[in-house]
Design a protein that fits this description.
about 400 residues; Alpha-Beta Plaits; 3 domains; alpha/beta; Rossmann fold
Length: about 400
């Protein structure tokens, strides 16, 4: 889709320039011009142009909203994509079932899990235990390993056949790849990296809240004109429900679409040899920031984390400085965590970092600056030099020979 300005009709009033949210329209003398690279084709200028000099030109792959055959009333139920890898359910799917249960109960509809893979039927029992009323299962050899095309074809078929009103996916590598592609195929929108979900009591629409503008504001987004309402949700934000393995539900087996076009094959799955940091499931995290002063400071952080039986985290500043790999980053552009204990060492507490760890059960902050923002969310604050505090903590742990 592209924005076209008919210069012979343009009066140079400047209304389009003022209405453009991305600054893609400029006045060239008495005629408006649009920068194609900056234009997002949102259509705001079309509505504001009094002389009708601006039009949207649709490509062959785009269908205008007014021409789509969508009866919103036909869409019912809350769906959760139950992500699995090599036959093991990922925690994010179970977390979303807990949140999905709340949404479904508020709406008075059923909660369903979507399970796609090969020989994964035994996982349905766990999905029922965590709250699913139904499980839609697509089981086929083509789905053994995640590939965009076959998974997208399977989920697209499910949505077009059974019409859910809400579809939730984890904001994982798989969810971030699959979600947008499915949304395009079913002509709906998608809100990425949500940290909160709710139901509007008046409209009964899904309220999808996510950080915006670098984490400085929280934006709540709705999708009123198309279904399903789709969102990816960050791992570690929602809490899993307590499983009830006596629960049973309805298993709906759906055939893999025969017309799915698959242009890729998986030749080999290679696992990384280095130690993988699983921040999202860690019970104890000891994080370092710019206050460490150098990458050598993380050696001390590692010792404390090892003594406590935890893992090492980091602020964006420390990662950007090249002191530690990105896989350790906690925050808006890193991982969202909720451990039992979070120790922030030399971290000032920028809002982007707080967004990723403020829901930890207990937060301990160590910082020289008594006015550091981190102390506003900390349960315990220590104003002092971390290079004196942490060695004292290590000594105490070694004396007691116990962790947490």
């Amino acid at each position: 889709m592209a924005v076209i300005i008919e210069k012979s009709l343009c009066t140079g009033c400047g209304a389009c320039e003022a209405s453009c949210p991305v600054g893609a329209i400029k006045m060239d003398g008495s005629v408006a011009t649009v920068t194609a690279d900056e234009c997002t084709s949102c259509g705001a200028c079309v509505d504001e142009c009094p002389s009708k000099a601006i039009q949207q030109e649709y490509t062959e792959h785009y269908t205008p909203l007014a021409n789509r055959e969508t009866n919103i009333e036909d869409y019912k139920g809350v769906w959760v994509f139950a992500e699995q890898r090599q036959g093991k359910l990922m925690n994010i799917g179970l977390e979303l079932l807990g949140e999905g249960r709340k949404l479904a109960d508020t709406l008075g509809v059923e909660l369903s899990a979507v399970l796609v893979g090969y020989q994964v039927a035994p996982l349905t029992k766990e999905l029922f235990a965590y709250g699913a009323d139904n499980v839609y299962l697509v089981d086929h050899p083509e789905l053994k390993d995640y590939r965009t095309e076959p998974y997208c074809a399977a989920v697209e078929k499910l949505i077009k056949t059974y019409k859910p009103q809400i579809m939730l996916l984890g904001a994982t590598f798989i969810g971030r790849d699959l979600g947008p592609r499915v949304a395009v195929r079913v002509f709906t929108g998608l809100t990425a990296d949500c940290t909160r979900l709710d139901i509007d009591p008046d409209t009964r629409l899904l309220l999808q809240t996510r950080p915006a503008f670098g984490g400085n504001v929280m934006a709540t987004i709705i999708c009123p004109d198309t279904m399903p309402q789709m969102a990816t949700v960050r791992a570690g934000v929602m809490k899993k429900a307590t499983p009830d393995y006596n629960r049973v539900g309805k298993l709906i087996e759906v055939a893999y679409p025969d017309d799915a076009q698959v242009r890729t094959i998986v030749q080999k799955v290679v696992k990384e040899a280095r130690k993988v940091v699983n921040l999202e499931e860690a019970k104890i995290i000891v994080s370092g920031g710019r206050g460490l002063g150098s990458p050598e400071g993380f050696k001390l952080i590692e010792k404390v984390a090892e003594a406590l039986g935890g893992v090492v985290g980091a602020s964006r500043a420390a990662v950007d400085a090249g002191w530690i790999p990105y896989s350790h980053q906690v925050g808006q552009t890193g991982k969202t965590v909720h451990p039992k204990l979070y120790i922030a060492c030399g971290i000032s507490g920028a809002i982007q970092h707080l967004a990723g760890m403020q829901h930890s059960d207990i937060i301990v902050a160590i910082n020289k600056n008594p006015d550091a923002p981190i102390f506003k969310v900390a349960d315990y604050g220590i104003v002092g030099d971390l290079y004196r505090v942490l060695p004292a903590l290590l000594e105490a742990l070694q004396e007691t020979n116990t962790g947490l």
